[in-house]
Amino acid sequence: MHLLDIFFPRRCVSCGKIGVYFCNNCIKKIDFIDRSICPVCEKPAIDGFTHPKCHSPYGLDGMYALAHFKGPVKKAIHLLKYNFVTDMAEPLCDFLVKGLPNTLPKFDLLVPVPLHQKKEKERGFNQSLVLTKIISKKLNIPYCPSILKRIRLTVPQADLSGRERRNNIKGAFYCAKSTILTDKTIGLIDDVATTRSTLMECCLVLKRLQVKRVWGVVLAHG
Ligand SMILES: [Zn+2]
Ligand SMILES: [Zn+2]
């Protein structure tokens, strides 16, 4: 047992039971996504592959989301993001990695959705990078922490309507030209995708630099 566990014991995010972040009872309350959707039209799509008719050269090739953004997963992401409980990332990534369908393309590289420098300083860390590091280790896929940058501060997407979100995020990212991106299949990692606008915008920036495929990989959607 870690010394910290004595002073700050792990508690189930949902019921408060001491010892684990997700007790067996509350794991059952997680609303895992069992019907994958196409990231473009939101209609059901096998294993999250973008429908051929929805596919575009600079668009996402697919999306994997572990759960709906509610219940224990919502609480856990909140603890991770706002209460600095970074230990929370480990069990969440465990669920995510175990849930990945084996039909997904093999990712060459993982890239976290970046925070603006100012925001990252305020928070002390980028939660997407925390997740990316863990997933990278579990899947044995390299990650690139700094190639994609957020160059514009944006209003939190949750405060905006659908169309406003797309405009809000437009031009918010920059990616340095690099041969490590050429012809690669990239897993773009984020904690929550609400409307997928952020994933789409990152994807556009990456694909302009000869990235072959981009998949969004998120803990929660909706
Ligand atoms: Zn519980
Ligand atoms: Zn579609």
From TrEMBL:
Residues 3-54 form the Double zinc ribbon domain. CDD domains: PRTases_typeI. Belongs to the ComF/GntX family. This is Double zinc ribbon domain-containing protein.
